[in-house]
Amino acid sequence: MSPVLEVRDLRVRFGAMAAVRGIDLAIERGQTHCLVGESGCGKSVSALAVMRLLPRGAKLEAGAIRFADEDIARLPERAMRRLRGDRMAMIFQEPMTSLNPAYTIGSQMTEVLRTHRGMGRAAAVERAEAMLARVGVSAPGMRLGQYPHQLSGGLRQRVMIATALLCEPDLLVADEPTTALDVTVQVGILKLLADLKRDLGLAMLLITHDLGVVARIADVVSVMYAGEIVEHAPAGQLFAEPLHPYTRGLLRAIPVPGKVKRGEKLATIPGIVPRTEAGFRGCAFRDRCGFATYECAEPIAARVEGAHRWRCRLEAGWREAA
Amino acid sequence: MSAIRRLPLVLGTAIAGFAVLVAILGPMLVPHDPFTQNLAHRFVPPEWLPGGSPAHPFGTDQLGRDYLARLVLGVRISLMIGLTAVVLSGLIGTTLGVIGGYFGGWVDAVVMFIVSCRLAIPIILVALTVVFLVGSSLTVVMLTIGLLLWERFAVVSRSATRQVASRDYVAAAWCAGCSRRSIVLGEILPNIVHHLIVVATVDMAIAILLAAALSFLGLGVPPPMPDLGLMIAEAKDYMFFKPWVIEIPGLALFVLVLGINLLGDGLRDLLGGESGG
Amino acid sequence: MLRFLLRSLLLGALVCSTVLVASFLLSRASGNLAINIAGPEASAEAIAKIQHELGLDRPLPVQFYDWAARAAHGDLGRSFLFHEKVSSLIATHFPVTFRLGVFAIVLALVVALPLGIAAALLEGTMFDIAIGAVALLGQAMPSFWLGLLLIIWFGIDLHWLPIAGVETWTGYILPSFVLAFVAIPVILRLTRSGMVDAMRADYVRTARAKGLSRASIVLKHALRNAAMPVVAVSAVQLGFILGGSVVVEVVFNIHGLGYLAWESIGKGDFPVVQAVVLLFSLIFVGLTVASDLVSALLDPRVRGA
User: Fold this and answer.
1) Which residue of C210, C218, C228, C297 to mutate against A (max A Cβ within 10 Å)?
2) C229 and C194 part of one domain
3) Range C53-61 contact pairs with CB under 8 angstroms and sequence separation of 24 or more
4) CATH number of the domain that B116 lies in?
5) What is the ipTM score, two decimals?
6) Which of the residues A77, A98, A150, A151 would you substitute to probe the C interface, choosing the one with the greatest number of C C-beta atoms within 10 Å?
7) CA B151, CA B117: separation in Å to the nearest integer?
8) Residue-wise pLDDT tens digits, C161-193
9) C and A make contact (3+ CB pairs below 8 Å)
């Protein structure tokens, strides 16, 4: 089966700054692919690039984005518009501001159906109500007449999800969908996304900085650092056997109840993500890595071991040494 | 692009700086007296028009007075009105605004109510009435405008104060036992002053235009003072035959106000203040 | 919603009554009201007589109560100058100024809204910069000077439009344009900045992610949110236009309220001045209440409150 979305060598630049430096992604039907990394690593920019929603000033440079049997990286805006909201949909981090405060939930949902499906008002309202019910919104008929400010954050994110799924897209891109929500609400939203993915056979690209979210929902994980995917593996394998020092550092920074002793400091990764100008060579993590040598300034080839891919020149033995 | 973005500041500084120089030094440099009439030399056209003479580069007015000398004095009068009005309205408006913004609650409501009342009165008509009642003179015009034009200062300083007052360093000063007085003077004012500078330029431009309008309507700076608005009013009976008699003072007024506005825009970009609509 | 409107109305009423008192005090501030009527050569007895006839010798609060009570019944007193009832003077002069103001604000909106939207969509381009420059020039333009220049150009040189008066509708064109000129930069800048903010807002990104058309994104999603402050400011600007119409009315020799007030001020005819000032204030307050109402209708967050 060919993947729903296949990204090859995606590059995005903001002026001289290379925000995304050649990433590869492939997502299949019914799969949740998590893109993980610190803020500023280029994960949100990658998601926006896939939707072709990059802000002004950002330049989609090279690479192919294969979706629906087309390379959409070069598709004209008019054709992109037909795909967005229909075959591919996106939800965002800020449910507070991502809905238009001036219009009712109903208006903002039905416009999708009227645009892409040419539905009449009554049919669109009926479908929107059914979809709200599907994502677990109580009293969906009443919600359609309400305005965003009358809804809680969790409800708003459910409305965003329902709106995204109205046209039964093949791909759902979720950019930090739970970050702005209370912890208890987060769990509900993640469970909903997992159910929907399974039931509707969605391919889901989920952007997060939260490894807890990854552990809960991911099938496949790509760890991003400074615009590159440094490690890629099925979720279980990644957590069990991280091969990149950065991934390992991230995992060590998670407090695990029972394992962390009182008074003991949580592990952190010293330093900050470097600014990568165009033409940057070598491993971007080398300044923060305890195992770096002068060789790390040379271009690093990707290494493959089954479904596991990573970019580090260290031999597997380094883990025991650590 | 960055050259274009800097243009307002550069141009505004140049124009305003030139105007200040003219106002201070100009009267010493122009050979003619702005009040001396010479009925034999009425409406000598400016130098660049046919019949003009180098003796009067900008020509002479309906009473034969040198236009350049009057113009230079007019710029001085406009700037004096603008500065005085801004200082006065700045004091009133900032006091009101900071009090309302800092104390909040009913104090703030009262301040906003005063601002609403001020906005509701038609400023030109009230200014005309006041000048008529008190008698027209340069001082009266300066004071009247200053007493009427403080609402922008009040609105901007109020919202800026509210912002600053919620910051942690103000809370820190409060916890450290600083008095209200020292918090307002030491913590709040220095942090809103960049807003106030921008408002000052905006208000100065408005004050100058308002004063010119009052003079134009005959209840501003009294003759024979050469206020730019008054020069236009006195010359307008002759404008159909000699358009330059209103074009010259009008252009001077326009460029002066434009320069101050440009300066304000440039400062806003530089300091990150706001004009407050 | 109801609470919001009641608040707005209450504030408006308070402002009106304050202006009422203030305008009364202003008119009584000069003790020479009777001298104005009687003339400078009148004897002290004659002045005292006039003062008594007009009730000017009574204590101020009594005078105020008397005046306010009559004003409430539409009796604004008599003009010393025109020997006519103030209310009928206002009734004959108001329509002209009102028409001028409405034409001007409509013209300002018609010019400023499309230009502001276009500048926002073309943010940072030469067009945007040029529009900003035009707004700046407009702000610096003394309206009486612009009026005179237009009279010279369109009235004298081109013979296209009348240079004074409003006997025909073409007489309204130049003065309305001059009045609009004051409001255009304000509305233009606000529309532009509102649209720039809206186009950067998350909900516009959502609208794009939903695959909506450019027209729907700009006109439905962005403009609706950018329009809210523009409505409020337009109402305020109309108030300023009416209150400031005196300059334009004098330039174009149009006998509206502003002209009436100007003449009356120059002659010390205070009942008229007082009534005009009061009327303008009432209109301004009415406009702000109306704009609160419209923003409440436009903004569901206010409506629900």
Assistant:
1) C210
2) yes
3) C56/C28, C60/C25, C60/C28
4) 1.10.3720.10
5) 0.87
6) A98
7) 10
8) 777 777 777 788 899 999 999 899 999 999 999
9) yes
